[in-house]
Protein backbone atom coordinates (compact mmCIF):
# COMPACT_ATOMS: atom_id res chain seq x y z
CA UNK A 1 0.00 0.00 0.00
CA UNK A 2 1.01 3.63 -0.51
CA UNK A 3 -0.32 6.42 1.67
CA UNK A 4 0.52 10.11 1.28
CA UNK A 5 0.08 12.99 3.70
CA UNK A 6 1.75 16.32 4.41
CA UNK A 7 4.42 15.91 1.71
CA UNK A 8 5.46 12.38 2.65
CA UNK A 9 4.56 8.91 1.49
CA UNK A 10 4.70 5.61 3.33
CA UNK A 11 4.85 2.30 1.54
CA UNK A 12 3.42 -0.29 3.89
CA UNK A 13 1.95 -3.75 3.98
CA UNK A 14 -0.59 -5.53 6.05
CA UNK A 15 0.83 -8.53 7.89
CA UNK A 16 -2.10 -10.27 9.55
CA UNK A 17 -3.58 -7.36 11.51
CA UNK A 18 -0.40 -5.32 11.73
CA UNK A 19 0.86 -2.47 9.57
CA UNK A 20 4.50 -2.88 8.59
CA UNK A 21 6.28 0.20 7.23
CA UNK A 22 8.65 -0.62 4.38
CA UNK A 23 9.65 2.81 3.03
CA UNK A 24 9.16 6.48 3.85
CA UNK A 25 9.78 9.07 1.14
CA UNK A 26 9.51 12.81 0.63
CA UNK A 27 7.02 13.46 -2.19
CA UNK A 28 8.44 16.87 -3.10
CA UNK A 29 11.73 15.45 -4.36
CA UNK A 30 11.19 11.66 -4.24
CA UNK A 31 14.01 11.31 -1.73
CA UNK A 32 14.01 8.35 0.62
CA UNK A 33 13.62 9.32 4.26
CA UNK A 34 13.96 5.73 5.50
CA UNK A 35 13.85 2.24 4.11
CA UNK A 36 13.77 -0.91 6.17
CA UNK A 37 15.00 -4.47 5.67
CA UNK A 38 12.29 -7.09 5.19
CA UNK A 39 13.26 -8.80 8.44
CA UNK A 40 13.04 -5.52 10.36
CA UNK A 41 9.93 -3.63 9.19
CA UNK A 42 8.73 -1.41 12.04
CA UNK A 43 5.06 -1.53 12.88
CA UNK A 44 3.02 1.66 12.86
CA UNK A 45 3.61 2.37 16.57
CA UNK A 46 7.38 1.97 16.17
CA UNK A 47 7.43 4.20 13.08
CA UNK A 48 5.43 6.81 14.97
CA UNK A 49 8.01 6.71 17.78
CA UNK A 50 11.00 6.86 15.40
CA UNK A 51 9.54 9.64 13.22
CA UNK A 52 7.16 11.69 15.40
CA UNK A 53 7.29 14.69 13.03
CA UNK A 54 5.38 12.60 10.47
CA UNK A 55 2.23 12.47 12.61
CA UNK A 56 -0.08 13.38 9.71
CA UNK A 57 1.35 10.52 7.65
CA UNK A 58 0.91 8.02 10.47
CA UNK A 59 -2.66 9.17 11.01
CA UNK A 60 -3.36 8.69 7.29
CA UNK A 61 -1.79 5.21 7.34
CA UNK A 62 -3.90 4.29 10.38
CA UNK A 63 -7.03 5.49 8.58
CA UNK A 64 -6.16 3.50 5.43
CA UNK A 65 -5.45 0.43 7.55
CA UNK A 66 -8.83 0.56 9.30
CA UNK A 67 -10.62 1.29 6.03
CA UNK A 68 -9.15 -1.89 4.57
CA UNK A 69 -9.60 -4.01 7.67
CA UNK A 70 -13.24 -2.97 8.18
CA UNK A 71 -14.81 -1.88 4.89
CA UNK A 72 -17.70 0.59 5.09
CA UNK A 73 -21.06 -0.97 5.81
CA UNK A 74 -24.13 0.12 3.89
CA UNK A 75 -27.25 0.02 5.98
CA UNK A 76 -30.82 0.42 4.86
CA UNK A 77 -33.33 2.25 7.00
CA UNK A 78 -35.83 -0.46 6.19
CA UNK A 79 -35.44 -3.59 8.26
CA UNK A 80 -34.10 -1.82 11.31
Any overview of this molecule?
By secondary structure, the chain is an alpha+beta fold. It is built from two helices and four strands, in the order ββββαα. The chain has helices at about 45-50, 55-70; strands at about 1-5, 10-15, 20-25, 30-35. A four-stranded antiparallel sheet has the order 1-2-3-4. Strand 1 (about 1-5) and strand 2 (about 10-15) form a beta hairpin.
Count all strands and give the number. Answer: 4
N-C termini distance: 36 Å
The number of distinct helices, counting runs of at least 4 residues, comes to: 2
Please give the radius of gyration in angstroms. 15 Å
Main β-sheet, spatial strand arrangement = 1-2-3-4
Task: Sketch the major β-sheet.
Answer: 4 strands, antiparallel
- Class inferred from helices and paired strands: alpha+beta
Strand portion = 25-35%
Shape: globular
Unreliable stretches covering 5 or more consecutive residues: none
Percentage of helical residues? Answer: 25-40%
What's the pLDDT, averaged over the residues? 92
Return the string of H and E elements: EEEEHH
Amino acid sequence: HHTEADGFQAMWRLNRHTVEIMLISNTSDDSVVASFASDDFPDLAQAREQYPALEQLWNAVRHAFWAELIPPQHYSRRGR
